[in-house]
Amino acid sequence: MRRCSEFRVHMEHVDGKETEDLGKLAETIFTLRGKAIDLGPDFEKGAEALFSDLLSSWSRICDRQKKIRELIVRRQPAA
User: Fold this and answer.
1) Residue 14 in contact with residue 7, Cβ under 8 Å?
2) Within this chain, do residues 79 and 51 fall inside the same structural domain, yes or no?
3) How many domains does the chain divide into?
4) pLDDT per residue over 15-48, tens digit each?
5) Which of 30, 48, 51, 78 is the most exposed place for a label (fewest CB within 10 A)?
6) With contact defined as beta carbons under 8 Å apart, do 50 and 1 qualify?
7) What is the pTM of this model?
8) Residue 69 sits in which domain range?
9) Domain check: are 27 and 61 in the same one?
10) Sheet order of strands, 35-38 included
11) Quick check: 37 and 29 in contact, CB under 8 A?
12) Which residues of 12-48 are buried (b: 16+ CB within 10 A; e: fewer)?
């Protein structure tokens, strides 16, 4: 996803001026400041794989946090 980094950073700093360069899209090729990103099927597959990996990681983190909270509650003395 490094190829999207420059685009993302640029878009985060758009302030609405009419002179801002928002890039150009022709077919599946997006061009911004002379750099091109092919948004075709390979890009889509890579983005889907990254999203899937992120969801899997977040699920594992949430499960681990839930187990930690359960252990903490079990160790707390009854009121």
Assistant:
1) no
2) yes
3) 2
4) 666 556 677 888 888 887 777 888 888 887 877 8
5) 78
6) yes
7) 0.45
8) 41-79
9) no
10) 24-26, 29-32, 35-38
11) yes
12) eeeeeeeeeeeeeeeeeebebeeeebeeeeebeeeee
